[in-house]
């Protein structure tokens, strides 16, 4: 029987995907932190650190000493773990948070570009609002408000002076003799934080909280380091060049007056900052490889009366609201949409997050499953394209801004300003039809064989994919982690694939925890994932200590058994068919620029079942995050710590 004929939309999807496929995949980019070019590497220097103030702070531990909890990262994940530990009865003095930046906030410390707000409702995104009794000022909070709030959260739990900034962890090594982790660090002091010295400490329980996107990247195009004008990456916005302040959501960028600005990239960052660039610059050139789907935003101030009487009126309201959004996106809840924004109206976005609504997807049902997904998504995708036509006056520009890929292939964006700027005569869309730019000259950017002359170059070119290395926790943050018998975590992930119990710990790496959607659950609101996993990690730690004699007990060792870890991995082996919708996606960060599809296809053609098995181990819970949560809750209610081996060091 011949395959059914493709629809016009399906043919267009395939054509657009083919234009963007490249053999070098994610290798077409270079990571700024590790660039061999000094100018590019300096693009990730910290522009926000108050070095004089930081030099006056004391180090919160004695080098060569021992601490109970060492948390790597002072973003939302690290702060949540520390706060939950204090809530559970541990003392702030037992906790140290190591942070490479000059302050706390993680992505909200680094990213301060104009127009930046959370793209998920602040009421479910900002963590621990219920405990803090805090009301966000708007439905989508600004970067400045979120950053200030995270500092307040640390203060509430007595953790402000437990953070060591300007410090990089270089490696973790399990020491069987003392039953602890030796953690080697390099810390900076001085006017630019460049006066480096080494520290080390023994930690009973390290927790990795490095976030999804720690590594900014730029394309490997000729001439990129030779541009003679000012240049910066959006993850380190340079207000000394543009004017304005990092403390404002909508800064007055008066230094752009009379300037020609070029910005490379049209992802979620550009969608938020381009309208502000257009407001102040003489000309703006927007270089596009693949357009983003732009849905309406619907920003509004928080109504205090609605907050008190509706949103935050009952105990447990934030978790209920988080789960409601996740269930609506997974198509599990159709009648009670609490958040009621555009995220909750994407009919097929669950294709990348999971859903139990459509039953088990076996390999023979993959074509039917993809047909169901695209059938659900086509009307929404068409409406998004129609919205472009309704807003953008020039038909040619409008066509170039339309997306021809399923909604789940890239993170959708939300703006009531971005599309509108392309009606301005001084804003120029330079669409490269999927190829990307050709090169950068000392005075401009070459795309489609034509040079656009600019004064300022902004690189809105994103980050390395979170799927890099199959989700290896050590590889993601670029450090070496060696467990029992000097077993390398990266080597374990490379040879076996993802190997965890509950997505947060691994055999041969006792007492080491981390947070990730790999072998766990995912949803559009990543803080929901972080909150879930931080609570679960702290539960495991508390239960283990209670079993061994209480929270004051020293030397408690917590480690998954090998059998439990393998049994957990097997629960993900059948999830691959559900996520087959990625196979029709244009390359992007969710597929590591197509590397994942190519790797899977090569393994299928070669009959390499071992490689397919390794890849399948790196999936997420295919029923969605709320069903995954119920699995963890049932495990906790049993009270057995089943699968974990707990002991006390002699």
Automatic annotation (TrEMBL):
The keyword Endoplasmic reticulum does not apply. Its cofactor is FAD. Residues 9-24 have a biased composition (Basic and acidic residues). Keywords: FAD, Flavoprotein, NADP, Oxidoreductase. InterPro entries: FAD-binding_Monooxygenases, FAD/NAD-bd_sf, Flavin_mOase-like. It comes from the Eukaryota. One of its GO terms (molecular function) is flavin adenine dinucleotide binding. Residues 1-25 are annotated as: Disordered. The keyword Flavoprotein applies. Gene3D superfamilies: FAD/NAD(P)-binding domain. It holds the Pfam family FMO-like. Belongs to the FAD-binding monooxygenase family. PANTHER family: FAD-BINDING MONOOXYGENASE AUSB-RELATED, L-ORNITHINE N(5)-MONOOXYGENASE-RELATED. This is FAD/NAD(P)-binding domain-containing protein. It comes from Polyplosphaeria fusca.
